[in-house]
Specification:
alpha+beta, 2 domains, two-stranded antiparallel ribbon, about 20% strand, Beta-lactamase, 14 strands, globular
């Protein structure tokens, strides 16, 4: 049973600088005693313009907080979190037989393009190269992003980028690589990426996707501008952390989840490792796996503590403030959240041990 706490409760513990309208904070009574939920919310809100924060441990929703008009079921742009979702779709497509595997070359899907512009090296780029951001092509992100999305053909623009490294070499973060995966899914399955996602991922998870941008040819954006709710992020994270299982059903192959969470490369700009569309870093001696979207959109998974956190934030911060908010968030996870979650688990174990002795 849970109880609802309104803004008046938070007003006593949050500094004026971060007081914004809070719709609700909800948590289980027993869990609140152990976790100090108000302090968790306060510390989280101090890190940046978070508008939704949901925390689940051992399958139990412990903390839910919203402000700025957000709700658990209200969709918001999750930005590059969608890259992690595209990775899940690729794994499903392989399992369903639409793709032969991660070593399949992209030339299989863009035959018309390569007939007009023969390039054996580009045609040999693999699905794995795209998943791990190691296609070797010049990035379409950062300073190149505007030119790319203003082009009249996003797929061809991404394929036309010159090589700046060999395929399978260093990490070159590029939303174009993830968008090529969406185009691959569309051509391999005969369905739009959205239709495929709804059939094999969203509907089984009882998730309603909101807006989702498409390129000029109608291919759904493979790495940005997808709208999902905080509760959907939490459900996806829980399913992934549970080895692809939701409600007793295997939604994403367990082997794909394991393969996706391996470390294949490392960012040149952040202290993060990268798998198949999923990030990872070690905090306080614990592996934290996460999907990350610009401006503060996250699915955080802490498998050792059986914890999933969904975070949605307001966009619009400049690059420097985004970077500082990200630093503060991971400092909060390392020095506050993981510590409290460990203490909560230890307290439960002590209670259990005491009960067994009586």
């Amino acid at each position: 049973m849970s109880r609802l706490n309104t803004f008046s409760m938070l007003a006593r513990c949050l500094p004026a600088a971060v007081l914004l309208p809070v719709l609700s904070i909800q948590f289980a009574d027993a869990a609140a005693e152990d976790l100090n939920d108000a302090a968790i919310v306060e510390a989280a809100y101090r890190t940046g313009p978070i508008k939704s924060f949901m925390l689940q441990q051992d399958g139990e929703l412990l903390v839910e907080a919203h402000r700025q008009g957000m709700r658990a079921d209200r969709t918001t742009n999750v930005k590059s979190v969608s890259k992690s979702i595209v990775s899940l779709l690729v794994g499903i497509a392989i399992e369903q037989g639409y793709l032969t595997g991660v070593q399949q070359p992209i030339g299989d899907f863009f035959a018309e393009y390569f007939e007009r512009r023969p390039d054996a090296e580009k045609a040999a780029i693999t699905i794995q190269d795209l998943l791990t951001m190691r296609a070797g092509l010049e990035s379409t992100s950062r300073r190149n992003y505007g030119r790319w999305v203003l082009s009249n053909n996003w797929v061809e623009y991404a394929l036309e980028r010159p090589f700046v490294d060999r395929p399978g070499g260093g990490m070159i973060y590029s939303t174009g690589s993830s968008h090529l995966l969406s185009a691959v899914l569309t051509r391999a399955t005969g369905m739009s990426t959205r239709a495929f996602a709804e059939r094999f991922l969203f509907e089984p998870l009882d998730i309603q996707v909101g807006g989702w941008d498409r390129d000029p040819q109608g291919v759904y954006f493979g790495g940005n501008n997808m709208a999902l709710s905080p509760s959907a992020l939490l459900r996806i994270g829980t399913m992934v952390m549970n080895g692809g299982i939701h409600d007793g059903k295997q939604i994403v192959p367990r082997a794909w989840i394991d393969e996706s969470m391996r470390i294949y490369t490392r960012s040149l700009f952040n202290p993060y490792d990268y798998g198949y569309g999923w990030w990872q870093r070690n905090l306080n001696g614990t592996a934290v796996q996460f999907a990350w979207g610009n401006g503060g959109q996250y699915i955080l998974m802490i498998p050792a503590l059986e914890t999933v956190v969904a975070i949605a934030s307001s966009s619009g911060q400049d690059t420097a403030n985004n970077r500082e908010s990200r630093r503060m968030l991971f400092d909060f996870v390392e020095n506050t959240l993981i510590v409290q979650l460990r203490n909560k688990r230890a307290a439960r174990q002590d209670k259990s041990a005491g009960s067994s002795e009586t």
